[in-house]
């Protein structure tokens, strides 16, 4: 399974869907740092990205994993509150072959804060 | 270039970000039918999808094109107003190798109504 990429928008200026802020480092950069401070599941690579084009839904992340998995974008995330849930969700995603995690096995932030999903390329 | 997939959410209940409606066929199904009625650019395949998980931003579509292209999701689309713009945008996307169409070459609905984008898998 695995070979999964967890993309993190480092330019997000919002936290949990709030108003854009001028703080530095930006919430997106803080999200990346918070995730870097944790061990990732085997086969999962963290990738900083400048803008996932979900600016009104920051902080935002994307999960992708090859041509046979659905890709997902999640938003309204908070680097101070949601890192454990993100890691739980990525672990479940990485354990699938198609990216489809059963609804009940998804952390609440993944169930409620999906921005979009894209079908597999194959 | 090409080998691009234009995924269309057929279950979207909204048009152009409005209130969800009960009309049948659903706006998403009408979007699919409207696109099917047009010739697509060479190398572009239309794919109906049940839910792109962008329900509050319907009608929604996604563009993807192999492991080396960025993928994009667009929303707040109207099957009666935006088909020509979508075809223009898909044509430009299909002509790239990485999915990155210069800003000025994107139709206005693609500039203003991006829901999210996901980086290439390679």
UniProtKB/TrEMBL annotation, chains A, B:
Name assigned to this protein: Putative metal-binding protein
InterPro entries given in the database record: DUF1636, Thioredoxin-like_sf
Pfam families associated with the record: DUF1636
Domain of life: Bacteria
Organism: Actibacterium naphthalenivorans
Taxonomy of the source species: Bacteria, Pseudomonadati, Pseudomonadota, Alphaproteobacteria, Rhodobacterales
């Amino acid at each position: 399974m695995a070979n999964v990429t967890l993309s993190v928008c480092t330019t997000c200026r919002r936290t949990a869907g709030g108003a854009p802020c001028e703080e530095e480092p930006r919430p997106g950069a803080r999200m990346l740092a918070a995730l870097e401070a944790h061990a990732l599941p085997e086969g999962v690579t963290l990738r900083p990205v400048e803008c996932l084009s979900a600016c009104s839904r920051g902080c935002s992340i994307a999960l992708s994993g090859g041509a046979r998995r659905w890709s997902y974008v999640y938003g309204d995330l908070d680097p101070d509150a949601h890192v454990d849930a993100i890691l739980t969700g990525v672990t479940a995603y990485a354990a699938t072959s198609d990216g489809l995690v059963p609804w009940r096995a998804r952390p609440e932030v993944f169930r409620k804060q999906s921005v979009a999903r894209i079908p597999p390329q194959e």
